[in-house]
Fold Ribonuclease H.
Amino acid sequence: MAQKFYVVWAGRQTGVFTDWATTHRQVDRFAGARYKSFPTRAEAERAFAGGAPRSTFVRRAATKASEPASVQAGPASFDLQIYCDGACDPNPGRAGSGLAVYRNGELAQLWHGLYNPAGTNNTAELNALHRALVMAEAGISSGSTVQILCDSTYAINCISKWAAGWEKKGWRKAGGEIKNLEIIQAAYAIYSRIESKVHLTHVSAHVGTQGNELADRMAMFAVECANEELCEYAGKIDIPTILRMRAG
């Protein structure tokens, strides 16, 4: 196998590394890790000196010692990517939602809010997905390609799999009530209009995917601020600083 050289722009240690095992220790489960492999040392050193490309980001951090296929970060495939997440402390208890919005692969906005003093993690996830769908519909109407990335299998299934059947049955399901029905109906109404144009994608939580980690921090920030409205983050968008905020 040909020698590879690994650049770590963001990790426990940064620099150029000559083996994957060492590189893996720097980026494994490191929130916001940025790294890429190169065929020659000269290319790696030039890339490290030039800084991480702003139009690329690592979609997930490695969790195994073997080199993952996704170690090379590529340009964003969508004009608009919206990461959404919910948090609740405790569960049930104080809940909030967060979003991280990327345009052409670059972080553009962070949002937080939708505080509920008597919520659950599921309601927070659904609220976040609902607002992501609102943003997605606006983006699609302006001609953008849109991807929503959500780490809640429950929220995704409610909107993309189960809601259609529940609607046909008069919003009923066998075995009992549909929990969180009002927000599911609101989110599904949008999803049913844009289903063929929006890419709704599951992303693993807390494995170092930058957008997911930022949405998570915004969700916890919403819990701490107790702001009921969805608000754009007013602070400086300094990614390392935000990633050091409390995680959900």
User: Anything to note?
Assistant: The chain is about 35% helix and 25% strand. Residues 80-244 form a domain with the Nucleotidyltransferase; domain 5 fold (CATH 3.30.420.10).
